[in-house]
Design a protein that fits this description.
The structure is a homodimer. Chain A is mainly α. In chain A, 66% of the residues lie in helices and 0% in strands. Chain A has 11 helices and no strands. In chain A, helix 2 packs across helix 7 and helix 6 runs antiparallel to helix 11. At the A-B interface, helix 7, helix 9, helix 10 and helix 11 of A face helix 7, helix 9, helix 10 and helix 11 of B. Chain A binds a DNA duplex through helix 4.
DNA sequence: GATAAAAATGACCACCTGGTCATTCGGCTC
DNA sequence: GAGCCGAATGACCAGGTGGTCATTTTTATC
């Protein structure tokens, strides 16, 4: 059929088409993306796009599948790398990996954001379920294990803990792309150093809010202590 | 010009038009919204819409201004009602008011969500700045006051605290509208009771993570104690 | 009821969309 | 160079868009 015809293309051209399509969808979402414009910006004819992908939806799904595979791969890598680490260190590393991914593939992330709130994507429901594996497959077991090991307080609904982690981590990533969400913290297109500090500060708050009794937070809480080895990103203004 | 011609309309018709427009924009965003479809569903001619609002953008701005006014009014009300309350009680009440608003005006909230991630809205930048007053005008002074009074730990960047609160509260609201974000917590279109419990659970985690030394959390933290007078929404599964 | 002013209408316009397909092109083999 | 065949092309289609405006309908005044 069509798609193997696309696969028969030579590498540079294939990559160029994928990149161009990612750019188009990330800028305009699905419906508002224009194959006329895409074809023109790629310097190929619109007819070819239809030969390769059948229709607009086919092109989008192809792009989307590639992106999901990319994310899964990276997450699996982090999971493996931090298998032996403390719960909150896992969180820290996951966040750092997220930031890194997003810097490397900003447009891929934007497609995801668009799809989240723009309801006219094709197969939106199914695709989002595929993407939200982040909570289902990644965070949830991590939380359950953390609870079992006493690192995370176990008197709360684990699903709710997952929800909180997901909320705060996702927003942290969004703030890197959407200037209105950074709230003066410097997250939006901030330097790696600033971002690193904020990750540490975030993880510390999470530790205070969620840590279990099994962990070694000595005093009333771990204020500045425990696992923080890079200086938490805090001003000390008044008191 | 046009808009006062709209104002001269009789009340039921005016309201019907506003409601129809909110429905259209909330379903389709700006670009994909169709004035043909809107006119037809309203049972008036397209020409009239242009007489009233000049163009599509004018109609959208009119709708948007009304919505912003609605939100401001409600927030001011909550601020006044909780002026004498504890910091975390303020947060709790604000969240509850947010949930309430969102149930009363679900389509207004959806327009906001669409605009956040769909970049082709007219005047998007300016409008979002106007809307994000939530952090700037509402949360920030609250946090600063909380820090000054020792209710909130003051060794962190206040902007970062605002960011965290904003993130978690916003996501909490989003989860009521977007099924993929609720993560099995039951927030998505959940009952008032479930939502109430989750608000309490959320505030408790925030208290543990952010409370200052001025507050009365006696032990290593306020586990289940302190200000929680409605039973925190927690299962007690294993331990 | 006649007249004038205001408001509602919908046919019409230029433009853009996703999608089609007969035609042309380009690189093989012999 | 001839012949072949898959690949690239872009004119073309039906359908939908925001926007216009001459015309008709409604309303108000006398």
């Amino acid at each position: 059929m069509g798609i193997d015809r696309f696969m028969r293309l030579k590498e540079p051209k294939r990559e160029k088409i994928v990149e161009g399509a990612v750019e188009e969808f990330s800028r305009y979402g699905f419906r508002q993306a224009s194959l006329n414009r895409l074809a023109q910006s790629l310097g190929i004819s619109k007819g070819s796009l239809f030969q390769y992908f059948g229709n607009k939806e086919g092109l989008f799904l192809f792009i989307f599948d590639q992106a999901v595979a990319l994310v899964r791969k990276r997450l699996a890598q982090v999971k493996q790398e931090t298998a032996e680490k403390d719960f909150f260190e896992k969180i820290r590393r996951s966040l750092a990996a997220g930031v890194d991914f997003l810097r490397r593939h900003p447009r891929v992330y934007r497609i995801y954001l668009k799809m989240l709130f723009q309801e006219d994507f094709p197969l939106r429901t199914e695709l989002l379920h595929r993407v939200r594996l982040f909570s289902a497959e990644y965070l949830r077991p991590m939380v359950l294990k953390g609870m079992a090991q006493g690192e995370v307080r176990s008197d709360m609904d684990p699903d709710f803990v997952v929800f909180l982690l997901d909320a705060v981590m996702d927003r942290f990533l969004q703030a890197q792309c959407v200037s209105f969400l950074d709230g003066g913290t410097g997250l939006y297109e901030g330097s790696a150093e600033v971002t690193g500090r904020l990750i540490d500060a975030l993880v510390e708050v999470l530790r205070n809010g969620l840590a279990g009794d099994g962990m070694g937070h000595a005093g009333s809480r771990s204020r500045g202590g425990a696992h923080d080895d890079s200086g938490l990103g805090v001003q000390v203004p008044g008191a």
